[in-house]
Amino acid sequence: MDLLTFLTRTAEWPDKAGPARLASAWKPGLVKKDARIAQQGQPENREFIILDGSAASRIYDPEGKPVCVGLYVGPCVVTPNIARTHDGVSLVSLEALADTLVVQMDSDRLTDLMIRSEPIRDWANGVLRAELARKSDREWCLAALGGSDRLAWFRERYPGYEEIFVHALIASFLGMTPVTFSRLRSTPKSV
Length: 191
Known about the structure:
- The chain is built from 9 helices and 10 strands.
- The chain has a domain at 3-117: Jelly Rolls, CATH 2.60.120.
- A hairpin with a 5-residue loop joins strand 4 and strand 5 (66-73).
- By secondary structure, the protein is of the alpha+beta class.
- The protein starts with a helix and ends in a 5-residue tail after the last helix.
- A 4-stranded antiparallel sheet has the order 1-10-3-6.
- The protein has helices at residues 3-10, 17-24, 81-84, 107-116, 118-144, 147-157, 161-164, 167-173, 178-186; strands at 27-31, 36-38, 46-52, 54-60, 66-73, 76-77, 85-86, 89-90, 93-96, 100-106.
- The longest helix is centred in the C-terminal third of the chain and has 27 residues, at 118-144.
C-alpha cells in the first residue's frame, strides 16, 4: 500500500491537501530482514510507518535476553517516538522480521507539521491515543489474565499474527514461555 492511501484510510481529512502534505514529508526506505530500524540505548528522533513487511519491538536486559513489547504488520504506524524513547534515547530495539518497507520522519518535523496544520495534528494525536489504548490493553491482559485467556485475547486483537510471527516472539509478547504457549495452542478450545 502506498503512504497516501494509508493516510487517507486511517483518518478523516477535511480535504486532500492535508494527507498529501503529510505524505510528502516522509522518507521511504527498505529495511532488510533482521536489520534494526531503531536500536535500544542509541539516540532516536524518528517516527516510523511500516507500509509492507513486519517488525517487532524488543527490550533487551543487561544479559542480552529480549522481551517482545510490540508486533507490527504493515501497513501500520509504529509506536510514536514519545512513547518509545526517553531523553532522545531509544528504550527499545525495533527489528525488521522480513524485508520491510518503512517510511520515516524526524519527530521535530512532524511536530512542526502538527503546529501548522490542525488535520495533521488530529491525525497524529489519534495515532498516539490509539497506541496508548493498545499498550494499556496489553498491560491489563498481562496483569489480569491467565495463560489461556491471554492467548484468546491475542487471537482476538491480532488475528492472523500466529501465522506471521515465530511463536517464541508471541510467547514473549504474552509474558509466557514458548513451552507454555505451545501447550496452550495445542489445548482444544472449549465450546
